[in-house]
Design a protein that fits this description.
The complex is a heterodimer of chains A (379) and B (493). Chain A has 15 helices and 4 strands. With 379 residues, chain A is mainly alpha-helical. Chain A has one domain. In chain A, strand 3 and strand 4 form a beta hairpin. The termini of chain B are far apart. Chain B has 2 domains: 367 residues; 97 residues, no CATH class. In chain B, strands 1-2 form a two-stranded antiparallel sheet. Classes of the chains: A mainly alpha (379), B mainly alpha (493). Chains A and B meet through helix 4, helix 5, helix 6, strand 2 and helix 13 of A and helix 2, helix 3, strand 2, helix 11 and helix 15 of B.
C-alpha cells in the first residue's frame, strides 16, 4: 500500500465517519421536538426515550470521528482545535450536557428540573449540527491560521499552529457561506429526527406532528442547501499543485465535481435519497423514510468531503497565509501509522454489523405510551 | 500563573473528575454481570432483581463518565495543540482504535442492557451486560496504551522534516501496545476499578444492614461485591509491584519523588513516613534485589551508573545535548533545500543527540524535579488506604460468611467509610503517575511548556471555571440521585 493510497483511504474513512455522524444527528434533530408545543408531556417523554436509546451512537461516532481525525490528520486536529477554541468548546459543552441530560431528565433531584434538561437537549439539538455544519463550511471559505513548524525550536514561542483572529473560531459566523451549511444541517437533522420518530414511536398524534414538521422544514432546508451549493459551485477554491503550492482557482469545486464524475454521481444519488426521504415522510404514510434520508445523507456528506479534499484541493485552507493551508498530503500521519490503522479499520464492517443487529433486536417493538407509563427502565 | 499552568489545571481537573466515574463503571459492570450470570445459570429471579438494582446505579454513574471522557479528547487539541501534532502519529492511533473497538461496543450494548430486559432474549441480554463491561475495559486498555507511551515513549523516531515523533515501523506498533508500562498500568487501573466497584457494593449493602432492611439482598450482594473487591485488591497489589519496578527502570525521578529519596544507593531504604524507614526495602521493591541500586534525586541531577553498568549523564549534560539537537534541527531545516550536504551533517548531529532533545527546552537541571511533597504523600495515601480497604473487605466477607456482620456496627461503619477511602486511593494513584512525571508531557521528549496551544490565559481561565461549575453541578446532582436510588432500594428483600 503506497503512502498516497493510505492518505486517500483515510480521507475516505473520515468522510464516511462524517457522513454517519450527520446521519446519526437525527438524535439532535429529534430532540428539537421537545419544545414542540403540539406534543403532550407524555409524547415528549416518548421522544426523549426514543432518542435516549440511540444518543450514545451519535456521541460515540463524534468521539471516533475526532479520534480518527487526530490519528490520521493530526495537523488538522492541532490547528483547528487549538485555534478555533470557542467553537469546539461550545460544541463540547452542548454534548456534555446532552450526555447527562437523559439520565437526569426525570429525576426529581436534578436541580435544574425537567425543563432545564429539556432545554439542554434542545440547545444541543440546534447548536451541534449548526456548529459542525459551519465548521465544515470553513473547509471551503478558509480560516485564519498560520502553520510554522520551525516555531517549535523557538523556546519563547514554540507553538506550531497559531490562530490569526482573536475570535478563536467564532469569526466563522461572519462567513455567510459557512453559516449557510450550518443552517442547512440544522434543517436536515430536524427532518431526519422526525423521520426517525415516525418509525420508532407507535403513536398516531406524534406521527402526524412529525409529518407536519417535515412539510414545514423541507422548503427552507432545500432553499438554504441549494443556495449553499450554488455559491460553492461558483466560488473560487483552494487548489494545490503537485509541489504542494496552494493557489486560488475559479470554479474549483465545480471543476472537482466535473473531474470526479463518481463523486458527482454519489452526490446526486445522495440528494435523491434525501428528497425521497422527505417525500415519504411528508406526503405518504410510509414509515421507512429514515432509511432513504439516512443513506442519502451519508452519501451527500461523503461527496462534500471528497470535493473538499480530493483532486488537488486544500481541505482546510488558511485565508491569512495561503501556504499554511492543510491538504491530505501535508497534514497526515506517517505511512506506518496509517498502515496499522488501516488494518484495524477492517473491523469496521464487523462493528457496523453488531450495531445493526442490536439495533434491530431493540427496535422490533416500537415505543408506546404504555411502555413509558409502565416500564421501570426509562428516562 | 501563565496559560501553561491554567491548561494543566484544566486538564488535571477534567482527568481527576473523569476518574471519579470510570473505576465505578469498571467495577460495578463486573459485579452486576456476575449477578446476572447467577440469574441465568441458577434461573433465580432474585439475582435478576439484584442485578437490575445495581444496574440502575451503574447507569447514573456511566453517563457522567462518558460526558467527561469526551472533554479530555477535545482538550488534547484545544489546549495541547503542539502535543497533538508532535505525537498525533502515535498517540492518536490508540485513541482512534479505542473509538472503533471499544466505544461502539459500550454504547451499543449499554442500550441493550438497560432497556432490553423485555425486548431481547435472556442470553442476548446477559452477553450484552458482559460486553458493556468488556467494552469499558477495552476502552481503558487503549487509552492506557496512549498514556503508557507518554510515560515510556517506545517505538518512535523523530522526523525533522515533519517535526514530530513518528511510528518507527509498522512492527513498532506492537512495541507501543506491549509497552510494559502500558500493560502494568492497564491491569493496575482496571483492577483498581474492581476494588472501587466491589467496595461500593459492599458499602451500600452494609448501609442496608445498618438500617436493618433488605438484609438478604445485602448479604448476598456483599459476597459478590467482596469477591470482586478482593480479587481487585490482590491484582492491584501485584500490578502495583510491577509498576514500581517499571518506574525504577523508565522513570527513576518519579520513583525518587515517590520516596522523597534525595541520595540513592544500594540497599536503599523504603520510607513509611518521614523518619520511619525499612532498610533495603526500596531496593527490593524497585529492583527485586536487596543490593539493587536506586538513584536519588541528586544522583539523577548529577549523573550515575545504573544496575546494568550504563553511565547515565547528568541533567546538565542532557540539556547541553538537547540544545545541540535543537540547533542541529534548526540548521537542518534551513539548509535542506539549499545545501543538502551541510543539511546531512546537521542531520547526523541531530540524530546523535535527539534522544535528549526535550532537555534542550529546560532552563535549569532542577526543572526535572517534580513536586516531591505531593507525589510522596499521594503515594502513601494510596498505599495506606489501599491496605486498610483490603483488611476491611476481608473482615466484612468473613463475618458476613459467619452471619455475624449485621450485629457488628463498627465493621459496617468501617465498610461504609471505604467509599471515600477508595476514591482517595484512585485519585492519589493518578496524582503519583501524572504529577510524578513533571515536567514532561512525554517523558524526556516534550516538556509541558512546549506542548501547549496558542491560547491566552483569559481563554483558558474562562473554560476552567465553566468546567468547574459544570462539574460541581453534575456531581451534586449525581450524588443526590444516587443517594435517593439507594434509599429507595432494590425491589427484593
Amino acid at each position: 500500500m503506497s503512502y498516497t493510497f493510505l492518505q486517500n483511504y483515510w480521507w475516505c474513512l473520515i468522510a464516511l465517519l462524517g457522513g454517519l455522524l450527520v446521519f446519526l444527528m437525527f438524535v439532535q434533530g429529534a430532540n428539537v421536538h421537545l419544545i414542540n408545543g403540539r406534543l403532550s408531556d407524555l409524547q415528549k417523554r416518548m421522544v426523549a426515550n426514543s432518542t435516549g436509546r440511540k444518543w450514545e451512537l451519535a456521541f460515540t461516532t463524534l468521539v471516533t470521528f475526532g479520534g480518527a481525525f487526530f490519528a490520521s490528520f493530526p495537523l488538522f486536529y492541532s490547528t483547528s482545535f487549538g485555534g478555533a477554541y470557542w467553537v469546539w468548546m461550545l460544541l463540547l459543552l452542548t454534548f456534555v450536557f446532552q450526555a447527562v441530560a437523559y439520565e437526569f431528565l426525570h429525576k426529581k433531584e436534578n436541580i435544574l428540573g425537567v425543563k432545564g434538561f429539556r432545554i439542554a437537549l434542545v440547545a444541543n439539538g440546534f447548536l451541534a449540527p449548526f456548529l459542525v455544519g459551519t465548521a465544515v463550511g470553513t473547509f471551503f471559505t478558509g480560516s485564519p491560521f498560520t502553520v510554522n513548524k520551525t516555531a517549535i525550536m523557538d523556546l519563547s514561542s514554540p507553538v506550531i499552529s497559531t490562530w490569526d483572529s482573536p475570535w478563536r473560531g467564532l469569526e466563522a459566523l461572519a462567513q455567510g457561506h459557512a453559516v449557510l451549511l450550518g443552517l442547512a444541517l440544522v434543517g436536515l437533522t430536524v427532518i431526519l429526527g422526525a423521520l426517525y420518530l415516525i418509525i420508532n414511536i407507535d403513536d398516531t398524534e406524534t406521527e402526524t406532528q412529525m409529518r407536519r414538521t417535515i412539510k414545514i422544514t423541507a422548503v427552507p432546508f432545500l432553499v438554504i442547501f441549494l443556495t449553499w451549493l450554488g455559491i460553492l459551485l461558483c466560488r473560487e477554491g483552494f487548489a494545490v499543485n503537485e509541489l504542494g503550492v496552494v493557489s486560488m482557482e475559479k470554479y474549483k469545486y465545480l471543476h472537482n465535481l466535473i473531474q470526479m464524475p463518481e463523486v458527482l454521481v454519489m452526490f446526486l444519488v445522495g440528494v435523491v435519497g434525501v428528497l425521497l426521504g422527505i417525500w415519504k415522510g411528508a406526503l405518504t404514510k410510509s414509515r421507512c423514510g429514515i432509511w432513504f434520508g439516512g443513506i442519502g445523507t451519508v452519501l451527500v456528506v461523503m461527496a462534500v468531503f471528497f470535493i473538499a479534499g480530493f483532486n488537488g484541493t486544500s481541505y482546510y485552507p488558511s485565508n491569512t497565509d495561503l501556504q499554511s493551508s492543510l491538504t491530505i498530503v501535508n497534514s497526515s500521519s506517517s505511512r506506518f501509522t496509517l498502515q496499522v490503522m488501516s488494518i484495524v479499520s477492517l473491523l469496521i464492517p464487523f462493528v457496523l454489523a453488531y450495531i445493526v443487529y442490536a439495533w434491530r433486536q431493540m427496535d422490533k417493538k416500537k415505543i408506546t405510551e404504555d411502555e413509558i407509563a409502565q416500564s421501570e427502565h426509562k428516562y | 500563573m501563565d496559560a501553561v499552568i491554567w491548561s494543566r489545571l484544566q486538564f488535571a481537573m477534567t482527568a481527576a473528575y473523569h476518574w471519579l466515574f470510570v473505576p465505578l463503571t469498571l467495577g460495578l459492570a463486573m459485579a452486576m454481570a456476575i449477578m446476572e450470570t447467577l440469574y441465568v445459570v441458577k434461573k433465580d429471579e432474585y439475582w435478576k432483581k439484584a442485578a437490575q438494582f445495581w444496574m440502575k446505579l451503574f447507569a447514573i454513574n456511566f453517563a457522567v463518565g462518558i460526558a467527561t471522557g469526551i472533554i479530555l479528547e477535545f482538550e488534547f487539541g484545544t489546549n495541547w495543540s503542539n502535543y497533538s501534532w508532535f505525537v498525533g502519529d502515535i498517540f492518536g492511533a490508540p485513541l482512534a482504535i479505542e473509538g472503533i473497538l471499544a466505544f461502539f461496543m459500550e454504547a451499543t450494548f449499554f442500550a441493550v442492557m438497560f432497556f432490553g430486559w423485555e425486548k431481547v432474549s435472556k442470553r442476548f441480554h446477559l452477553i450484552s451486560t458482559w460486553l458493556t463491561g468488556i467494552g469499558a475495559s477495552i476502552s481503558a486498555f487503549w487509552i492506557l496504551v496512549a498514556n503508557g507511551w507518554m510515560q515510556n515513549p517506545v517505538g518512535t523516531t523523530f522526523n525533522p522534516d515533519t517535526v514530530r515523533s513518528e511510528m518507527a515501523s509498522a512492527e513498532a506498533f506492537f512495541d507501543v501496545i506491549s509497552n510494559p508500562v502500558a500493560v502494568s498500568k492497564f491491569f493496575h487501573s482496571v483492577t483498581s476499578g474492581w476494588v472501587t466497584g466491589g467496595v461500593f457494593v459492599v458499602a451500600v449493602s452494609c448501609w442496608y444492614l445498618w438500617r436493618g432492611r433488605n438484609v438478604q439482598f445485602a448479604k448476598k450482594s456483599i459476597f459478590v461485591g467482596g469477591f470482586v473487591g478482593l480479587l481487585g485488591t490482590f491484582a492491584v497489589m501485584l500490578s502495583g509491584d510491577i509498576s514500581g519496578v517499571h518506574a525504577a527502570e523508565y522513570q527513576p525521578m518519579k520513583l525518587a519523588a515517590m520516596e522523597g529519596l534525595e541520595d540513592g544507593g544500594r540497599r536503599a531504604p523504603f520510607s513509611i513516613v518521614p523518619g520511619v524507614e525499612i532498610p533495603g526495602m526500596l531496593s527490593i521493591l524497585a529492583t527485586h534485589d536487596l543490593n539493587g541500586y536506586v538513584p536519588g534525586i541528586n544522583d539523577i541531577i548529577n549523573g550515575y551508573t545504573d544496575n546494568d553498568g550504563n553511565i547515565i549523564p547528568s541533567v546538565a549534560q542532557k540539556m547541553e545535548m538537547g540544545r545541540t539537537a535543537l540547533d542541529a534541527l534548526a540548521q537542518y531545516r534551513s539548509l535542506k533545500d539549499t545545501d543538502p550536504a551541510a543539511a546531512a551533517v546537521a542531520r547526523e548531529v541531530l540524530d546523535a543527540n535527539v534522544q535528549y532533545m526535550g532537555y534542550g527546552y529546560l532552563e535549569s537541571p532542577e526543572d526535572v524535579i517534580p513536586p516531591v511533597g505531593i507525589v510522596y504523600w499521594s503515594f502513601r495515601f494510596m498505599v495506606g488506604f489501599g491496605m486498610l480497604i483490603a483488611l476491611i473487605l476481608v473482615l466484612t466477607l468473613w463475618f458476613n460468611y459467619k452471619g455475624k456482620l449485621p450485629q457488628m456496627k463498627w465493621l459496617l461503619l468501617a465498610a461504609m467509610a471505604c467509599i471515600p477511602f477508595v476514591y482517595v486511593c484512585e485519585e492519589a494513584g493518578w496524582i503519583v503517575a501524572e504529577v510524578g512525571r513533571q515536567p514532561w508531557t512525554i517523558q524526556g521528549l516534550l516538556p509541558v511548556n512546549v506542548a501547549i496551544s496558542d491560547t491566552s490565559i483569559g481563554e483558558v481561565m474562562t473554560t476552567f471555571f465553566v468546567f468547574l461549575s459544570v462539574f460541581a453541578l453534575f456531581l451534586v446532582i449525581e450524588i443526590r440521585i444516587m443517594i435517593n436510588a439507594i434509599k429507595k432500594g432494590p425491589s427484593v428483600e
